């Protein structure tokens, strides 16, 4: 299936999708004013070693990975909207506490809460997009757009923080808490609008079918009765959605998932060898990328790179701006390639960036920026394509479970600070990035064998 980028596709986005986009912009912008600088804060405030800083960052992230899988699978059963509200409240509480943390133990606890909220929110949003947008090409564009707007926030956040004098200041986390409070209010409005729209559509369908039944005569009584039964089910479903505040696609997903037991879900995931290989490959890929957020910053900090805060802000800004300026262009240019081929091209660029980082001189400011440019182009190809890949693999009634399983990608992010810190302490920065290049070669191989791996027979897991 090829990608389609057009204004007509954008016009198909429901209001709720635009709320997701705006909310992602304001939350990511405030988040990136300070989160990337946590390694610097921990080093300067508590004089921790690279391994100790990595352990603090990794311990929080590892716990969140398993929380994400359980929570995302649960969303298919209790409803994504309720879980999104709870996750948003957790965001507000955890980021408010992070703004006041003043001990290593406090940072560990509160960062764990923040990481749990983040790892829950991402797959919930991706699965919710699948619920509200039925057309696969429009859904792919929606996911690409979400990734795009997140990076707009990442670009604006650090630069706005520098301009306001907030970059790297712990108190800036209050801004993230406020941003999520605004987003929750918008989601409440958006969910209610979606519910009213669904009920109106169901009522319209019922009215049309009743009119057709009245004029069709007795010859089609059997068929009309069947249609009316279906419409009555839909209309009743619409009323229930109005009571519970759930959209039509979400409710349908819940009903299907409710008849598939947790034991069956686990059995499906264990039989899907293609999914398991994909998860392992993407864990490695995320491990490589996460070095930019943690180990690269640690390396530059401890090595005494000139103009450190300016360099870090510049790399974050460059990363986001490259993605913003190239994402839809690359999507157009690579539309003719299959998903796996796109990912392999991105991985080749990732190898080049890791080799560049490994041999760049410490005081060569624009050398670091150049390596980040190449790495960012690779990221632009890889990250949104990974989400689309999972969306196409997932059965409709198990979308939450599959996106939850995909959240194990975050193990790469979780282990990167600790493993990267150990490599920095014992071998140095050059070996860290050469390791990343070698792992990228392994990921290319894993993607090349995906089509040969078995998948489960989903027909065996039908409702009784």
From TrEMBL:
Keyword Repressor belongs to the record: no
Keyword Cell membrane: yes
A GO cellular component annotation in the UniProt record: plasma membrane
Organism: Shewanella baltica (strain OS155 / ATCC BAA-1091)
Domain Major facilitator superfamily (MFS) profile stretches: 16-455
Name of the protein in its database record: Major facilitator superfamily MFS_1
Main localization (coarse): membrane
Membrane spanning stretches: 16-34, 46-71, 145-166, 172-191, 265-289, 309-331, 343-359, 365-388, 400-424, 430-450
Listed GO MF terms: transmembrane transporter activity
Subcellular location: Cell membrane
PROSITE patterns recorded: MFS
Keyword list, A-Z: Cell membrane, Membrane, Transmembrane, Transmembrane helix, Transport
PANTHER family per record: MULTIDRUG RESISTANCE PROTEIN MDTH, RESISTANCE PROTEIN MDTM, PUTATIVE-RELATED-RELATED
Source species taxonomy: Bacteria, Pseudomonadati, Pseudomonadota, Gammaproteobacteria, Alteromonadales
Bilayer topology: Multi-pass membrane protein
């Amino acid at each position: 299936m090829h990608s389609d980028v057009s204004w007509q596709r954008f016009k198909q986005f429901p209001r709720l999708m635009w709320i997701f986009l705006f909310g992602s912009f304001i939350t990511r912008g405030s988040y990136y004013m300070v989160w990337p600088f946590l390694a610097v804060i921990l080093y300067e405030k508590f004089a921790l070693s690279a391994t100790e800083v990595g352990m603090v960052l990794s311990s929080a992230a590892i716990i969140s990975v398993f929380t994400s899988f359980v929570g995302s699978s649960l969303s298919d059963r209790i409803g994504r909207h309720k879980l999104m509200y709870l996750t948003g409240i957790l965001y507000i509480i955890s980021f408010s506490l992070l703004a006041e943390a003043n001990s290593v133990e406090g940072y560990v606890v509160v960062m764990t809460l923040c990481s749990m909220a983040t790892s829950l929110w991402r797959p919930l949003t991706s699965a919710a997009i699948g619920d509200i947008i039925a057309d696969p090409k429009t859904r792919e564009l929606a996911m690409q757009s979400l990734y795009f707007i997140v990076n707009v926030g990442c670009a604006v956040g650090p630069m706005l923080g520098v301009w306001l004098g907030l970059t790297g200041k712990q108190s800036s986390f209050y801004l993230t808490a406020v941003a999520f409070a605004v987003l929750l209010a918008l989601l409440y409005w958006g969910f209610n609008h979606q519910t009213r729209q669904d009920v109106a559509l169901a009522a319209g369908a019922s009215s049309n079918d009743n009119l057709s039944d009245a004029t069709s005569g007795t010859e089609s009584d059997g068929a009309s009765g069947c249609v009316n039964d279906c419409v009555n089910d839909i209309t009743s479903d619409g009323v229930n959605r109005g009571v519970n505040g759930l959209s039509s696609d979400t409710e349908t997903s819940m009903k299907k998932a409710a008849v598939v037991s947790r034991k069956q879900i686990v059995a499906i995931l264990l039989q899907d060898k293609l999914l398991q290989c994909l998860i392992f490959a993407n864990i490695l890929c995320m491990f490589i990328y996460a070095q930019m957020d943690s180990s690269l910053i640690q390396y530059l900090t401890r090595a005494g790179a000139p103009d450190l805060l300016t360099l870090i802000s510049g790399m974050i800004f460059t990363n986001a701006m490259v993605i913003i300026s190239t994402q839809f262009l690359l999507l157009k240019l690579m539309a003719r390639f299959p998903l796996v081929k796109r990912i392999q091209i991105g991985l080749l660029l990732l190898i080049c960036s890791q080799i560049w980082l490994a041999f760049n001189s410490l005081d060569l400011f624009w050398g670091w920026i150049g390596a980040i440019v190449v790495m960012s182009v690779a990221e632009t190809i890889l990250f949104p394509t990974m989400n689309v890949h999972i969306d196409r693999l997932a059965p409709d009634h198990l979308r939450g479970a599959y996106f939850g399983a995909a959240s194990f990608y975050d193990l790469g992010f979780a282990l990167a600070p600790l493993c990267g810190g150990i490599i920095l302490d014992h071998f140095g920065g050059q070996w860290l990035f050469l390791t990343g290049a070698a792992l990228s070669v392994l990921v290319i191989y894993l993607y090349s064998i995906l089509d040969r791996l078995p998948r489960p027979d989903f027909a065996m897991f039908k409702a009784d």
